[in-house]
Amino acid sequence: MRTSWAVVVVGVLALTACGSPQAEPRAELVVGEGEYVPVALADASAVGDVVAASWELGFRALRAGGDDEAGGVVVSPSSLVSALAMVAEGAVDGESAPFDAALGASGDDRTDAVSALLAALARHEGDPATVQADELPATPVLHTAQRVVLDDDSVPRQEYLDRLVRGYDAGVAVADLGSDALHDALDPWVKEHSGGLVPRSALEPDPDMRAALQDAVVLAARWQQPFLEMETADLPFVTASGEQVDVPTMGADLAVAVVRRDGWTAVRLPYAEDLAADLLLPPAGAGSPAEADPAVVAALGVALDGQAPSSVHVEVPTLDLRTTTDLMPVLSDLGITAADLTGLVDRGVRVGQAVQQAVLQVDEEGTRAAAVTEVAMLESAGMLPGLDVRFDRPFLFVVRDGTTGWPVFLASVTDPSV
């Protein structure tokens, strides 16, 4: 269950769901007034635009990650969009333009859309620690969390904190972000809300840091039709460089939705009626899956929505991807790093660090995944029955919310043997 925030900070007190130790007292500060009221999808007119922008941003992040040495890259488009939307609440006047373009909507329309998308995911809300359990839960758990951490030398804008509470149900904490105390404040939150898959914050202390935004998402989901471990065998996989390697590969005869279009083969492996993983095999010789057109990938997902299950033999490698993506080049290209976020604290700040850590583990039982996005503000100046589908070359792995189409996890798998 998501919490509501209406709190008063007296002293340097971290106010989060898990709590945080007190430090030296400071002036009384009223933060986060108001009550979180989730927005219904039907009442958020910009949901479709934000979902489309999420696909574009997700692929930008995927390409920024690079996959030559890691065997692939995994990112969370939904977490990235949620984090940037919270940052955008601090942009005023013309400074919001790059956020508007990148996120597909502006102002209250954007806030309502992201709030509605997060609220839609909350139908699967649960304990993030289940991602580390010996057995995956009988019903999927999809946990999200958001918060802002203020430097103890910052005075936030009241309106900004109120918007975080009302729109995102975001918690508020205060810490010394210019020293190693940053990790004392940020690391426990990261570990808790990633279910332990991400152990610590990726941000580094900076004496100019005035605030940090954190967003986390965790998935623990069992396949509706699990693979049998006895059927897993080492089979060949042709990497992006053309090398053939043997990797543990699951195999099963399944009744699932399948689409073939323009050389692509798309297979949907459901966790529940409204939550699934889409495995997308590009045309042979197409190069890295990260270079795919986001619109084509989104359209394949829509096409799968309308397909009845077919008899399919699926072979797919087990996965254990762990990547850390520096988002600063992506945000710089979008003009976001140049925006002065004067609506956030009592002095001019800009995005100075932006990192996403993500984990994707896929085996016979199901999927475990987590992502943490952190942004630091620094003071500045068609259907084929009986089809045999082998994911034996680079492919895309997408976890997509079946209600909204919002991409929650997006991975480019280029070498599962790494």
Question: Can you offer a commentary on this structure?
Answer:
The protein has helices at 47-65, 77-88, 97-103, 107-121, 158-168, 181-193, 294-305, 328-333; strands spanning 7-9, 29-31, 72-75, 141-151, 171-175, 209-222, 233-238, 244-256, 258-261, 264-272, 275-281, 310-317, 319-326, 349-362, 366-379, 387-390, 395-401, 407-413. The strands form 4 sheets. Strands 3-18-17-11-10-9 form a 6-stranded antiparallel sheet. A 6-stranded mixed sheet has the order 5-4-6-15-14-13, with helices on both faces. A 4-stranded mixed sheet has the order 7-8-12-16, with no helix packed on it. The chain folds into 2 domains: 7-36 and 49-219 and 321-379, Antithrombin, subunit I, domain 2 (Antithrombin, Chain I, domain 2), CATH 3.30.497; 229-319 and 383-413, Roll (Alpha-1-antitrypsin, domain 1), CATH 2.30.39.10. It is of the alpha+beta class and 418 residues long. Strand 17 (395-401) and strand 18 (407-413) form a beta hairpin.
